Amino acid sequence: MEVHLKLIGGLLLVLALLHGVFPRYFKWNQELSVLSVLTRQIFQVHTFFIALVVFLMGALCLTSSEELVSTSLGRKICLGLGVFWSLRLLFQLFVYSSALWRGKMKETVIHVLFTLTWLYLSGVFILVGRNEPSEVIQTSTPFELGVIEEIHSALLQETRVLNIYLPESYSASDSLEYPVIYVLDGSYDEDFIHIAGLVQFNTFPWIGQIPESIVVGIANVDRKRDLSFPTSIKEDKEKYPTSGSSAKFISFLAEEVQPFIDTHYRTSSSRMLIGQSMAGMLATEILFTRPTLFDKYVIISPSLWWDNRSLLAMQPEIFSATFTSSTDIYIGVGNEGPTPHDSTIFMQDDARALADKISAAANPAIKVVFDYLPEEDHSTVTHHAVFRAFRLLYPELNRRHPEEED
What we know:
By secondary structure, the chain is α/β, with parallel strands linked by helices. It has two domains: about 1-130, no CATH class; about 145-395, Rossmann fold, CATH 3.40.50. It has 15 helices and ten strands. The chain has helices at about 1-20, 20-25, 30, 35-65, 65-70, 70-95, 105-130, 190-200, 225, 235-240, 245-265, 280-290, 305-310, 345-360, 380-395, and strands at about 145-155, 160-165, 180-185, 215-220, 265-275, 295-300, 325-335, 340, 340-345, 365-375. Strands 1-2-4-3-5-6-7-10 form an eight-stranded mixed beta sheet, sandwiched between helices. Strand 8 and strand 9 (about 340-345) form a beta hairpin. Helix 1 runs antiparallel to helix 4, helix 6 runs antiparallel to helix 7 (about 105-130) and helix 8 (about 190-200) packs parallel to helix 15 (about 380-395). The radius of gyration is 39 Å and the shape is elongated.
């Protein structure tokens, strides 16, 4: 009906302009000269305003046809216009004298054309006005990506937020257990949402690159405090005055977060930890100091420059032949530039040194993959690295069987 309303709009604009021709065509100066001045002016003023009203009707139809059709107010306006033009049709048929056109070809044609015009206008307007569109019921519901858990930490003396993504097949009524992927920097505005998306994508049945997994995002409160161990560098102590409490945060993960997740969700023994930058440094610290907390580590662009690269000087338990827990490690880094305190050492150099150090230990229980992503930088590397980590850490599930890069 919008097309008809636009067509009517054009017709009404033409009709309004025709009122400017009427005085000369009908020789009003001669015909009205016998009338009083007041009567002539009333006639002329009323003609002007009739033309103006018709013009405004046309403009309304041209500019607001969608609103006239789709809104309640618009349909009421159309119904009113339908009544208006229906009355105009009745006047055309029964008020004007037939003597004006009967037996006159030209006048008869004009009479028929106007009759058809008023019939068309009134018909369209009434149809629009009486047309009740099918009711569209708009419902708004929140889009739920997962569950938000709040736990009070006795170790940290504060309430912490855990963002939980559950696999599509997860059901409270069955007994199936799922691996857990723990994400440091796991706030909704950090890495939780996009990593949960990667997990969902890679667990689609037609992809099957990793097993269906629970994702636990650990939201930050004081990132520098929780993710860093004490440093001997004076400049960093001053720049990051709250830093140095990673040991307490690691205990929080081991003694409060993991037990909470295992108690409230159906988890298997498989646990992955993902961390980037300072969170990558914390993941490295956990690997070196409490390696059995996780069996898979995704370490991305770790800030190994911290405390004059002291982590790289450690000789952790995993280097010993007595460490037999199967552990898979992915170390990814982009083209990220020099470290803060030494422009001759690049972030990617430290990441490679970490991978080489772990590989050199030649512990058969340890599998390490180094992955250099030269097209990414420190800001963009995380998403791409996690995707590749899923591919490289689960080669038995990967249909494309990519070659591991070193």
